[in-house]
């Protein structure tokens, strides 16, 4: 019988993200029923819809504000609302997602048909960095997947399913709509990156195993707030600048968490969003920004804290709670933690 040898056919490794997930599941969770990969395809489908909208934003009437505020009191951009709708629609039809929670919705959303037996919760930031949309700067989508027990009586408060510490995530990832559209995810066995091939409409593997460098030479923080950072942060940044780590640093700040983290993941260094006068508890949201980013960082060999505690250990008490975030390479994080302890 003739076997197909793709190498002989000089075919590129057309490993799609769906195939990667299935192989991961077969290898690490032989009992898995393929439900998880079906769920993730709901996210990848929604992200392709968002990518198509983002890439044509200037040509269609999707720029600018939607004219209302979200639960955070932030003015919603039209694309915030459209991206949110895409995720709710695509995930709501997967048949195994019982509860969803979004930055753009005040309360968790229950999927009635799957409330009883659905085993998954998906928490997401449908469009991250949306203030950058109108100026054509990279934005992203962030997602976090948790497990839940079936709810035979269908009476459980969905918040109980959502308010789990980040250590309970079974998978997390983001899509960055940058010079290319990339999906980066972890299911607890390392971090892999896929690039969307618009000609094929599929996410093809481009970064099979992403490891965060042991150290970097970039720090990323909104310096405009520096005078109101707690002393620890100001001292830390001054010591990075003065070469106390033995390395010289430069500064990069895009203002989209996904883009700033993606660079930190690939190049190393440190990203910080400290407490500020405007946001004394930090600006970033624990459940759908800090937790997925922290899971990815640790899976790639980095660290993530709220300035004192490991992000993944924090027990959430409310859906939209905010947290300071310090995330990056081992060297820069240990330098911060040592200073914090002294
Ligand atoms: P979102 O657009 O989802 O509200 O997130 C914006 C966040 C995050 O992407 C970024 O790191 C941070 O806001 C930037 O805040 P500043 O503009 O205050 O620096
Ligand atoms: Mn965000
Ligand atoms: Mn957002």
SSE blueprint:
Elements (H helix, E strand, L loop, with lengths): L16 H12 L6 H21 L9 E5 L5 E3 H15 L4 E6 L6 E2 L9 E9 L10 E9 L10 H5 L8 E7 L3 E6 L4 E7 L4 E6 L10 E3 L10 H11 L8 E2 L5 H11 L2 E4 L10 E2 H14 L3 E3 L16 E2 L1 E4 L1 H12 L1
Parallel strand pairs: 3-5, 11-12, 11-13
Antiparallel strand pairs: 1-2, 3-4, 5-6, 6-7, 7-8, 8-9, 9-10, 13-17, 14-16, 15-17
Helix pairs in contact: 1-2, 2-3
The protein binds 2,5-anhydro-1,6-di-O-phosphono-D-glucitol and manganese (II) ion (MN) (2 copies).
The site of 2,5-anhydro-1,6-di-O-phosphono-D-glucitol has 13 residues, from strand 5 and helix 6.
Domains counted in the coordinates: how many?
Answer: 2
Unreliable spans are none
| Biggest sheet record | 8 strands, mixed
- The CATH fourth-level homologous superfamily of the largest domain: Fructose-1,6-Bisphosphatase, subunit A, domain 1
Query: Which second-level CATH architecture of the largest domain applies?
Result: 2-Layer Sandwich
Question: Helices and strands, in N-to-C order?
Answer: HHEEHEEEEHEEEEEHEHEEHEEEH
Give the integer mean of the pLDDT values: 93
Q: Tell me, what's the shape?
A: globular
Spatial gap, N to C terminus: 68 Å
What is the level 1 CATH name of the largest domain?
Answer: Alpha Beta
Round the Cα radius of gyration to an integer and report it.
Answer: 20 Å
**How do the strands line up in the largest sheet?**
4-3-5-6-7-8-9-10
Share of β-strand residues: 15-25%
Ligands, deduplicated: 2,5-anhydro-1,6-di-O-phosphono-D-glucitol, manganese (II) ion
Number of strands: 17
CATH topology of the largest domain: Fructose-1,6-Bisphosphatase, Chain A, domain 1
> Which percent range fits the helix content?
25-40%
Helix tally equals 8
Q: Structural class of the secondary structure composition?
A: alpha+beta
């Amino acid at each position: 019988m003739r076997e197909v040898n793709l190498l002989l056919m000089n075919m590129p490794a057309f490993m799609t993200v769906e195939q990667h997930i299935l192989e991961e599941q077969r290898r690490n969770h032989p009992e898995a029923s393929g439900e998880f990969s079906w769920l993730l395809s709901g996210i990848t489908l929604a992200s392709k819809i968002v990518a198509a909208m983002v890439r044509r934003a200037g040509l269609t009437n999707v720029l600018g504000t939607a004219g209302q505020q979200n639960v955070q009191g932030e003015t919603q951009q039209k694309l915030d609302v459209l991206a949110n709708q895409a995720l709710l629609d695509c995930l709501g039809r997967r048949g195994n997602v019982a509860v969803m929670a979004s930055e753009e919705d005040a309360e968790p959303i229950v999927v009635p048909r799957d409330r009883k037996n659905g085993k998954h919760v998906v928490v997401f930031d449908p469009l991250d960095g949306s203030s950058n949309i109108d100026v054509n700067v990279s934005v992203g989508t962030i997602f976090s997947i948790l497990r839940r027990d079936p709810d035979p009586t269908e009476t459980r408060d969905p918040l109980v399913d959502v308010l789990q510490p980040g250590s309970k995530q079974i998978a997390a990832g983001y899509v960055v709509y940058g010079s290319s559209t990339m999906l980066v995810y972890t299911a607890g066995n390392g971090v892999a990156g896929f690039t969307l091939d618009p000609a094929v409409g599929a996410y093809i593997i481009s970064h099979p195993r992403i490891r965060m460098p042991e150290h970097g030479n970039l720090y990323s923080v909104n310096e405009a707030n520096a005078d109101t950072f707690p002393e620890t942060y100001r001292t830390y940044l001054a010591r990075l600048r003065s070469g106390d780590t033995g390395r010289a640093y430069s500064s990069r700040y895009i203002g989209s968490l996904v883009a700033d983290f993606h660079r930190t993941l690939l190049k190393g260094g440190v990203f910080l969003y400290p407490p500020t006068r405007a946001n004394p508890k930090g600006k970033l949201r624990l459940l759908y920004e800090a937790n997925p980013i922290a899971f990815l960082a640790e899976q790639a060999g980095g660290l993530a804290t709220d300035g004192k505690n490991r992000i993944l250990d924090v027990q959430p008490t409310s859906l939209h709670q905010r947290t300071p975030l310090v995330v990056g390479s081992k060297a820069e994080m240990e330098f911060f933690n040592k200073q914090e302890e002294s």
